[in-house]
C-alpha cells in the first residue's frame, strides 16, 4: 500500500492534482534538516582538494560520462554542501522551512504535502517573497535553506544576486540608551552579538600597556583570539572590567545590555574599519612595519594550521557592482591586502580579504 495519495485542489481557479503524504511536510523537512547538523566541525576539512577533484573529473570523462552526470556525481561526494556547521544557520533554516510550509498550507489547505509536491513551488515562493520587496540577502538565505533540505542547487532557480558592497538602511536607527555601553564595547572589540553576550572578564588578557587579547568562542565553535592595539582600547576595557567587578558580575555586560536590539554588527564593521586604517597609517609612517605585519599574518596562519593563498603584495580592487556601490557612498575601490588580512585574522577571524573588504570595510 502506497503511503502517498492523490487529491484534487482548486488552485488559482484550476483543478490541480496534489500528492499528499502521511506526515506533515514541516515534520519531514525539519527531520531531514536535523540530520544535516554537523556542529563543531570545520567546513574546510571536508572539502576536496582541487587536484583530486580534477583527477576525478578527468577519470569520469575518460569513462564516457556526460557533463551533467559528472556534475551530479561531484555534488554527491562534496559532502560539506549537505551539512550544517553552526547552530545559528540551523535555526535560521528552520524558520525558513516553517514559513515555506505555512505558505503551502494556505495554498493547498493541507499540511501533508509530500517533498516531491512541495519542491515544485520553490521558485514560486521565492518570487512571492521578492514581490514583497525583501532584500537579496533574505531571498538568498531562503533559497539556500530550501535547496539544502531538498537537495537542489541555488543556480537552478531565478533569484536576485547578492553583492558584498551593497547599500543598507541606516544601522543606527535601532540604537537605544540601554545599548550605549554595548555599542561602545562592540566598536572597541569587534565581537559578534553572541560573543559580546558571553564575554567574561576572565576572557580578557592584557599583554602590555597597549595590547589586549580577547578569547572567545565564535561561529561554528571556533576558538578565536582577538588582538586589540592602542591605549584607548586598553583603557576602555579596564574601565568596563572595573565596573563589572564592582557589581560582582563575571560578564563584561549586563543581561539587559546583551539583549539590546541595536545594530551591533555595524559596530563590528566600525571596529574593522578603525583597525584597517590604523594598520595602514602605521605602515605609511614606518615602511619597515609592513614586513612585521606580513610576518604576523604568516605566523597566525601557521598557528591555525592554514595555508596563506593570497598574494599580499597585490592590491584588492573592487569591480562591477561592488565598485559602483563603493563609489556611490564615497568609499575607496582599492584596498591594501596586508591591512585587510590583518583585520580578517585578528578582528573578524575570516582568514580571507574578500569577505573583510566587501562586508565590513565598504560600509
Describe this structure in words.
By secondary structure, the chain is mainly alpha-helical. Helices cover 52% and strands 10% of the residues. The protein has 16 helices and seven strands. The strands form three sheets. A three-stranded antiparallel β-sheet has the order 3-4-5. A hairpin with a 2-residue loop joins strand 1 and strand 2. Helix 12 packs across helix 15, helix 13 (289-303) packs across helix 15 (337-348) and helix 15 crosses helix 16 (353-361). The mean pLDDT is 89. It comes from Ruminococcus bicirculans (ex Wegman et al. 2014). Belongs to the 'phage' integrase family.
Enumerate how many helices there are, as a single number. Answer: 16
Shape: globular
Number of separate structural domains: 2
> Could you list the spans in which at least 5 consecutive residues all have pLDDT below 50?
none
> What is the strand content?
5-15%
* CA gyration radius, whole angstroms: 24 Å
Tell me the number of strands.
7
- Kindly state the percentage of residues in helix: 40-55%
Order of helices and strands: EEHHHHHHHHHEEEHHHHEHEHH
Euclidean distance between termini CA atoms: 59 Å
Mean pLDDT: 89
The oligomeric state of the chains shown is: single chain
Computed structural class:
mainly alpha
Protein name: Core-binding (CB) domain-containing protein
InterPro entries: CB (IPR044068), DNA_brk_join_enz (IPR011010), Integrase-like_cat_sf (IPR013762), Integrase_SAM-like_N (IPR004107)
Keywords: DNA recombination, DNA-binding
Domain Core-binding (CB): 68-154
Amino acid at each position: 500500500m502506497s503511503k502517498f495519495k492523490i487529491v484534487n485542489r482548486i488552485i488559482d481557479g484550476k483543478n490541480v492534482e496534489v500528492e499528499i503524504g502521511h506526515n506533515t511536510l514541516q515534520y519531514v523537512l525539519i527531520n531531514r534538516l536535523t540530520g544535516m547538523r554537523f556542529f563543531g566541525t570545520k567546513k574546510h576539512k571536508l572539502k576536496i582538494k582541487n587536484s583530486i577533484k580534477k583527477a576525478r573529473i578527468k577519470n569520469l570523462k575518460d569513462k564516457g560520462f556526460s557533463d551533467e552526470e559528472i556534475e551530479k556525481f561531484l555534488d554527491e561526494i562534496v559532502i560539506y554542501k549537505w551539512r550544517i556547521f553552526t547552530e545559528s544557520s540551523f535555526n535560521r533554516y528552520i524558520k525558513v522551512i516553517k514559513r515555506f510550509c505555512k505558505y503551502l498550507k494556505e495554498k493547498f489547505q493541507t499540511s501533508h504535502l509530500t517533498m516531491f509536491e512541495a519542491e515544485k513551488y520553490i521558485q514560486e515562493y521565492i518570487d512571492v517573497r521578492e514581490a514583497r520587496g525583501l532584500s537579496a540577502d533574505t531571498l538568498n538565505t531562503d533559497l539556500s535553506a530550501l535547496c539544502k533540505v531538498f537537495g537542489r542547487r541555488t543556480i537552478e532557480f531565478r533569484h536576485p544576486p547578492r553583492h558584498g558592497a551593497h547599500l543598507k538602511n541606516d544601522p543606527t536607527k535601532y540604537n537605544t540608551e540601554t545599548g550605549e555601553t554595548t555599542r561602545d564595547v562592540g566598536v572597541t572589540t569587534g565581537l559578534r552579538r553572541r560573543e559580546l553576550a558571553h564575554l567574561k572578564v576572565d576572557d580578557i588578557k592584557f599583554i602590555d600597556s597597549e595590547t589586549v587579547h580577547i578569547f572567545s568562542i565564535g561561529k561554528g565553535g571556533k576558538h578565536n583570539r582577538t588582538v586589540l592595539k592602542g591605549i584607548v582600547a586598553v583603557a576602555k576595557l579596564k574601565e568596563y572590567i572595573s565596573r563589572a567587578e564592582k557589581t560582582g558580575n563575571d560578564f563584561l555586560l549586563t543581561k539587559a545590555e546583551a539583549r539590546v536590539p541595536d545594530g551591533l554588527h555595524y559596530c563590528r564593521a566600525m571596529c574593522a574599519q578603525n583597525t584597517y586604517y590604523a594598520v595602514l597609517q602605521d605602515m605609511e609612517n614606518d615602511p619597515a612595519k609592513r614586513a612585521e605585519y606580513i610576518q604576523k599574518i604568516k605566523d597566525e596562519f601557521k598557528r591555525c594550521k592554514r595555508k596563506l593563498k593570497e598574494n599580499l603584495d597585490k592590491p584588492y580592487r573592487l569591480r562591477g557592482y561592488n565598485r559602483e556601490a563603493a563609489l556611490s557612498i564615497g568609499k575607496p575601490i582599492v584596498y591594501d591586502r596586508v591591512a585587510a588580512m590583518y583585520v580578517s585574522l585578528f578582528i573578524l577571524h575570516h582568514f580571507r580579504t574578500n569577505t573583510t573588504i566587501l562586508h565590513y570595510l565598504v560600509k
